[in-house]
Amino acid sequence: MKEIDEFLTIFKYYKANKPKPSSQNVITVEDERHYDKVIRFALKQSDDARTQRLGLKKMEKWHVYTFQSHPGLYLIRNPFTSLGQRYWIRKCLEDYPRKPNRTNIDNEINLEDWWQACYVDGASDQTLIKKLRWTTLGYHHNWDTKVYSEDNQSALPRELAELTDVVALSLGYSTFKPQATIVNYYHMKSTLSAHTDHSEVNLEAPLFSFSFGQSAIFLIGGQDKSVTPTAILLQSGDIMVMSKESRLCYHAVPKILLASSSPWNEEVNHSLGEISASFKYINQPEELYSNMIKNTGDEWNRFKDYVKESRININVRQVLNESQNSLAGVVFNS
Ligand SMILES: O=C(O)CCC(=O)C(=O)O
Ligand SMILES: [Fe+2]
């Protein structure tokens, strides 16, 4: 007997505009109506000297949640400062889509620098701006074969590796190694259909997913599509971590919603944090701070315009097993 695709039923429900779907069953972690579905989680450490330099608040201010229906799934509810959000949004637009990283646009046009090409003589090319749907960094995700390969990779940005390391350690994942990243760019009508992320050799390592800009309804179900998925609201600054039993669950984004607030546009107050912090990946931590504080006034305007009607998701994965240094000789299951 063919199993019923419960996932698709719920996906279509939230994707539809008419009738407008109810938000009653969409879990908003801080909403007390959902207190029976959500559990507060105590972090494994009190702070990390690197937090403020990376645009994060001190860990004592973080709110971390787990989900009754999904062991291994964590949501860190916006631990970023306003300037921190701006820093990461800008990285995703100005730096990460640059060559040698890959983007969906490469199949159509050969662009060294997408963001620069979007603004010629001060005018914006809205068609080109809207064209970018993904960028891959580190080991490049191959969208057709779903197989990573040793000769298909670019460097993983050091600041992104550092950020993920801080988050991983806060949850007790001390051996996590960031090796592949997909940045997804969504506009108000974009969706991402049901899938599992199973291309990595190491499926035990958690997956870290950062959201910025407009909000999303995120669906997470079970290891097959017969399981009715749970709907969770992801807002700007939220970090979702898929680990253990949740790592291989079907998930999707059926809907982008206008954010109820714009934390990236809030009052700017950001302190440098501990000067003595030692970094694992970054060689020049001073640059982090100068790049963080420059995102005000005119410098910030183009990025601010972009996120007014877009959502950016960065997801970071470990590809290799603990004992591996490369993919040489690795046979994939497909
Ligand atoms: O946009 C999201 O929140 C999810 C993205 C995702 O699942 C993926 O890139 O594999
Ligand atoms: Fe995914």
Automatic annotation (TrEMBL):
- Taxonomic superkingdom: Eukaryota
Domain (Fe2OG dioxygenase) spans: 177-320
Q: Which UniProt keywords apply?
A: Dioxygenase, Iron, Metal-binding, Oxidoreductase
**What cofactor(s) does the depicted protein rely on?**
Fe(2+)
Cross-referenced PANTHER family: ALKYLATED DNA REPAIR PROTEIN ALKB-RELATED (PTHR16557), NUCLEIC ACID DIOXYGENASE ALKBH1 (PTHR16557:SF2)
Its name, as the record gives it, is Fe2OG dioxygenase domain-containing protein
